[in-house]
Amino acid sequence: MITVKDITKTFGENDVLRGISAELKSGKNNLIIGGSGSGKTTLLKCIVGLHEPTKGQVFFDEQNFTDMNFEQRVPIRTHIGMLFQNSALFDSMNVEENIMFPLNLFTNMTKAEKLDRANFCLERVNLKGKNKLFPSELSGGMKKRVGIARAISMQPKYLFVDEPNSGLDPKTSILIDELISELTQEYNTTTVIVTHDMNSVMGIGDHIIFLYNGKKWWEGTNKEIAHTDNKELNDFVFASKFMQAAKAKL
Amino acid sequence: MRVTEQIDALEIMGVNAPGYLISPKIIAGVSMIPLLTIISVVLGLGGGYLACLTSHDIPTTLYLDGLRDGFNHVIVTVCAVKSISFGFIITSVCAYFGFYTSGGALEVGQSATKGVVYSCIWILFADLVISSLLL
Predict the structure, then answer these.
(1) Which of A113, A1, A110, A153 has its CA nearest to residue A63?
(2) Are A154 and A78 in contact (CB under 8 A)?
């Protein structure tokens, strides 16, 4: 479980996050949603330590991550897997080398064991046999899946996903969502997903945090979201006519 | 790499990204630029000898005597110090601008230009300092 306590982040005079507290549960898809500029990616980066919060703390299973220095954070980081918005695959390495990269860094596995693990991860994301392709030879959806394979190569306890559906067609988006959801169940990970894709929200949102103007505005599940009377949340979720029609049917 | 979040990916994995990305470049620059300098000096002297040999304007013995007479060990020291310093400046300045690039393709181009311009300026400055200290 990840606990976020009173996180505030300021860039110059701009308060991006204002006192956000939340509990992100293990074995659940914890979705952070909100409009552009609401601070969701900043919150994610504060949680994983890519940004240092101006105020507040983040706890990974009771361990105060915020107060740790770089070396102290390394053991926790070995349990973190992250899928970036642009997949962030290393251009100079092929698919197999990308997946084996964290294994090379943090394990004493033999090359054969690492190859086995890479093949297992690739099979898990339905990319069996694509080992030798380079990122430039992959489609957007394939890159995301390789990114997921790399993220799960170390069997993470915490999985962070930044905009998993950006730039993908609806069918691939659903496949990626389902894959993330299955992995969350399979490894009992604490999965944190930043998204503004409403299909993801309604499909896999076990626990949703809605950010508005840098504040936690609403918290609940995808079942509760349809019946909330929170105006800002309704304006955000049911902005499209399609979603309004779907809500009317509920 | 920063723009495509590859540096963030390294940091998430607990890798000391500056050390992992910048130090190999600096080591390469500091070791290879002096090597390139040695090669260029050897090729320059060898080229002079070949020119004498083929043109017959200057006898090769005279050329070799000229090399020996004009030799000053301080020049070798200055050459070594400058090549090591310039190697360090080129790699560290460019790696710095590359590492802290943010934004998109435009900023990558701007950082590349800044890297070249700033390393040229630093090289001129280092050249002045080294020459005035050693010569």
Answers:
(1) A1
(2) yes
pLDDT at A186: 87
For testing contact with chain A, the best of B1, B3, B7, B8 (most A CBs within 10 A): B8
- pTM attached to this predicted model: 0.81
Measure in Å the smallest separation between the Cα of B100 and chain A Cα atoms: 14
With an 8 Å Cβ cutoff, are B6 and A101 in contact? no
pLDDT of residue B53: 93
Contact (CB, 8 A) for A29 and A200: no
The 10 Å Cβ neighbour count of residue A140 is 14
**Chain B interface, mutation test: which of A87, A103, A144, A159, most B Cβ atoms within 10 Å?**
A87
* DSSP-derived 3-state class of residue B15: coil
Name chain B contacts of A80, Cβ cutoff 8 Å: 12-13
**Which residues on adjacent β-strands are paired with residue A29?**
A191
- Contact criterion met (CB below 8 Å) for A63 and A76: yes
- Which of A41, A42, A89 is the best mutation test for B, with the most CBs of B within 10 A? A89
Contacts with B94 (C-beta within 8 Å, 6 or more apart), sequence order: B25, B115, B116, B119
Q: Which two tokens stand for residue A108?
A: 């004493």
Nearest residue of chain B to residue A86 (CA atoms): B4
CA distance B6 to A86: 9
* C-beta separation of A87 from A147 below 8 A: yes
CB A58 within 8 A of CB A21: no
What amino acid occupies position A178? E
Cross-chain CB nearest to A74 (options B8, B9, B14): B14
Instruction: For chain A, say whether B18 makes contact (Cβ under 8 Å).
Output: no
Q: What is the mean pLDDT of chain A?
A: 88
